[in-house]
Amino acid sequence: MSLGPIAAPPAAVERPAAAPATPPASPKPAAQPSGAPAAGARYAIEFGPFMTAPEAERVERQLSEAGYPTVRFRQQTGAALYAVLIEKIPSARDAQALVAALRQQGFADAFVVGEREPLSVQVGLPLPLRGAVQTAERLRASGHQVRVAAQPGEAVMFALRHGNFATSGEAEAKGQELMRLGLGNQVVRVK
Fold it and tell me: How far is residue 191's CA from residue 25's CA, in Å, rounded to a whole number?
């Protein structure tokens, strides 16, 4: 029974003790508001930005296989989208043959555009300019005549994050470890 009364007075004692401790604690909270965001902040390692989902997926797969879970973020960039087109295909039969050939060459997302001849084949979905130019260069290297055309819509950028670290130092150390795997990264504050 003495534990019950003792438990109540220490709570009362803590308040008077907190009152003398509050002036020293007040400077600590005063130091903590500027220091509190740093002390209360969390850090993660960020990879990217990636302009296409396959780029992000490649790094995400590499991290996953190495045992590092990630979270993927998607952000609108304000940049335009571009389609990669092979144009002036004389017939539907020729267009379908081209789509089949492109799929064998690794361009799985090729499809016929339009209903009237001459037709066009679009290779993949619209991409940010960099991705569209890369696709166009690959197609040109295979002997195709291509055009990169602006499309309605806004490009998306992807980033990957790993970890939830209490200090930037912890995140930096893990970031250096991941750099040794050939994965460029940066430490970002997440909270």
Answer: 24
**Computed from CA positions of residues 174, 176, 182, 184, in that sequence, does the dihedral angle turn out positive or negative?**
positive
Question: What sections of the chain are H helices per DSSP?
Answer: 3-25, 27-40, 53-65, 92-104, 129-141, 168-179
pLDDT, one tens digit per residue, over 117-126 is: 999 999 998 8
Pairing of strands 147-165, 119-123: unpaired
Strand order in the sheet with 110-113: 110-113, 119-123, 71-89, 147-165, 43-50, 186-189
Q: What is the DSSP letter of 127?
A: B
Peptide bond into 118 cis (omega under 30): yes
What's the whole-model pTM score? 0.50
- What CA–CA distance (Å, rounded) separates 42 from 157? 23
| Through-space distance between the first and last CA atoms of the chain, rounded to whole angstroms | 46
Judge contact between 85 and 124, C-beta under 8 A.
Answer: no
Model confidence band, residue 2 (pLDDT cutoffs 50, 70, 90): very low
